Amino acid sequence: MVKFFQHTFAYDHPWENVSYAFWLRYPNPFASHVLCADVIDRSINDDGVLTTTRLVLKQGKLPKWFPQQFVKNSEAYVIEESLVDPKTMRMVTRTRNLNHVRIMQVEETQTITPHPVNPDMTTVKTEARIISKFGWGMAQRIEMFGESNFSKNTAKARQGMKHILQMIREKRLRERMGFMQPQTA
Amino acid sequence: MSSSIGTECTDLKQKYDTCFNKWYSEKFLKGDTTPECEDLFKDYKACVMVALKEKQIDTLLADARKESPFPPPSSSSNSEA
């Protein structure tokens, strides 16, 4: 069994800021489970597309009913591969966990593009696949846990992004004010 | 800024991140795609690679990267930013 999840959301911020916020999003008050994040590789191709691979370490959460003896520690390594095309204003990110994959593998793809109608807004399309190969007749229960946890986490991730986006907006505003001051003085 | 998996690499990471963030927001997004911060990245990456080996996740990562979602960049283009 596999669970699929799809969701589209719009931020009230322009694409440049959302794409920038993606790199700034850790740490934020809604991501205390993120322990560290590293850039493993980064390159730009001839078309000016930026490709990045990051490794993120997260503190996982196991449901109470899960037999704890199967998991030595609940830290999860997550690989995050992304590409950004500033010309077409398109950012695609794909993340998946590297360990604990037999218990549960979560693969998430996000496509970040300017809102089709309002250019001051940004659309984020999230697609995820949750699969458990765990035995003991527990795979389905794990997938259901994964699914409900995934939507909770998506909401939290959005709060984190909004927090960073607000900081970017305030910084830009301050810069503009600072720039204008000499003229108004 | 988030810390690095190798505690000893966090300083190098923050130096690189600062450079990248500035380049990304002030140049890259504005259409100037000439890579910068390459030397800082080289030092930072070398440090992280040692940390990954120590934690024995280097092979796990290498295996995972074999099935990259995005095709590798076309022939003559693998300059690191």
TrEMBL record, chain A:
Q: Which InterPro entries match?
A: PRELI/MSF1_dom, Slowmo/Ups
- Pfam families in alphabetical order: PRELI (PF04707)
Q: What is this protein called?
A: PRELI/MSF1 domain-containing protein
GO cellular component assignments: mitochondrial intermembrane space
Organism, by scientific name, is: Umbelopsis ramanniana AG
Positions of the PRELI/MSF1 domain: 2-173
From TrEMBL, chain B:
Which family is it part of? Belongs to the TRIAP1/MDM35 family.
Q: What is this protein called?
A: Mitochondrial distribution and morphology protein 35
Query: Which GO annotations describe the biological process of this protein?
Result: phospholipid translocation
Q: Which PROSITE patterns match?
A: CHCH (PS51808)
Q: Which domain of life is it from?
A: Eukaryota
Which source organism? Umbelopsis ramanniana AG
* Any one of the GO CC terms: nucleus
Keyword hit for Disulfide bond: yes
Which molecular function GO terms apply here?
Answer: phosphatidic acid transfer activity
- Keyword terms: Disulfide bond
Instruction: List each coiled-coil range.
Output: none
